[in-house]
Amino acid sequence: MNPARSPAARRSGRRPTVVVLRALGLGDLLTAVPALRALRAALPGHELVLAAPERLADVVRAIGVVDRLLPAQAPGRGVPRTLAWSGPPPDLAVDLHGCGPPTRLLLAGLRPRRLYVFAPPGRPRRPGPRWRADEHERERWCRMLRWYGLHADPADLWLPPPDEPSPVPGAVVLHPGADAPARRWPAERFAAVARALVREGHRVAIVAGRGEGALARRVAEYAGLGAEAVLGGAADLPFGRLAAVVARARCLVAGDSGVAHLASALRTPSVVLFGPVAPRLWGPPERGPHRVLWHPLPGDDPLRPGDAHGRVPDARLLRIPVSEVLAAVRTLPDPDHPA
């Protein structure tokens, strides 16, 4: 069922285009890498255009399969109201953003020759596979593409290590931030982990995204580390620098965040702390050098027991003690890449 080049495209001599919508954050983009690679492999003659936030341009380049970024974003995890598309209708539009009417209508408005989407919830007779709430994000989009006849492997998530050197090679890297407070383990506990690791002889660095500077500095202060231990915070670290720090780290300790997904993509050992959402949906690869910590409460919903966008740390996240994080770090294998 791979889309052939349209008659109009053949007559005009133009390169056919596929437009993909994934206008979300860093972790969302990294979990879509297997699907993007599947599209690139299936459509080698197409121009692959990704509608995503412009601040992810360096990440898109690092993935290496996208021809052009179409800047698109919305507040929170919303759907862009419009796409700044000025070319002829694309041969194919692919929804890797959601499954509801807003994304379908947004892409349909481009008048593509073919549209790859999930069937609308509650309308199983409409074209497309059914949406499932219980599958991992990487598998979800690959399953959708397989339904349309493409080969898609959710394990194809790796990124090549960056050429840029790390300013903190071999460090244990802590990332205390996350998009919502519900997924942020307390700063005091990150600091306690940092103090213990320094006593054991480890170098510790703290990475922070845009708006996370105060949090990262608080962790450093509580841990007795100098300001030089904090990387980023006033703005996002340039992606090349962030990737270098993570790729050449001893390991990463983080909550459910984009930086944790970056560690998965770079095969860096990690300890990932989960709270309101099950690792079954967003966790690192089960066979990788990763440790997942999660303590759901009795009677919890097995997938989304808490509010992932809540304003206070989730109760399940608070059930993870400092001692368990330290024990998990100590069991991680040495990274198989040079520091």
Concise account of the structure shown:
This protein is of the alpha/beta class. The chain has helices at 7-12, 26-31, 33-42, 57-63, 101-108, 137-147, 187-199, 213-223, 239-247, 258-265, 279-282, 315-318, 322-331; strands at 17-21, 47-52, 68-71, 92-95, 114-116, 172-175, 204-208, 230-232, 251-255, 270-273, 290-293.
Keywords:
Rossmann fold; disordered N terminus; 339 residues; 14% strand; 5-stranded parallel sheet; globular; alpha/beta; 2 domains
Helix tally equals 13
End-to-end separation in angstroms reads: 45 Å
Strand fraction: 5-15%
Contiguous uncertain segments of 5+ residues: 1-11
Q: Considering DSSP H and I runs of 4 or more, what fraction of the residues is helical?
A: 25-40%
Shape: globular
Describe the structure.
With 339 residues, this protein is α/β, with parallel strands linked by helices. The protein folds into 2 domains: 7-147, 3-Layer(aba) Sandwich (Rossmann fold), CATH 3.40.50; 172-331, Glycogen Phosphorylase B (Rossmann fold, 3-Layer(aba) Sandwich), CATH 3.40.50.2000. The protein is 32% helix and 14% strand. It is built from 13 helices and 11 strands. It has helices spanning 7-12, 26-31, 33-42, 57-63, 101-108, 137-147, 187-199, 213-223, 239-247, 258-265, 279-282, 315-318, 322-331, and strands at residues 17-21, 47-52, 68-71, 92-95, 114-116, 172-175, 204-208, 230-232, 251-255, 270-273, 290-293. The strands form 2 sheets. It has a 6-stranded parallel beta sheet with strand order 8-7-6-9-10-11, with helices on both faces. A 5-stranded parallel beta sheet has the order 3-2-1-4-5, with helices on both faces. Helix 4 links the parallel strand 2 and strand 3. Helix 7 crosses helix 8 and helix 7 (187-199) packs across helix 13 (322-331). The longest helix is centred in the middle third of the chain and has 13 residues, at 187-199. The protein is globular, with a radius of gyration of 21 Å. The termini are far apart. Residues 1-11 have low confidence and may be disordered.
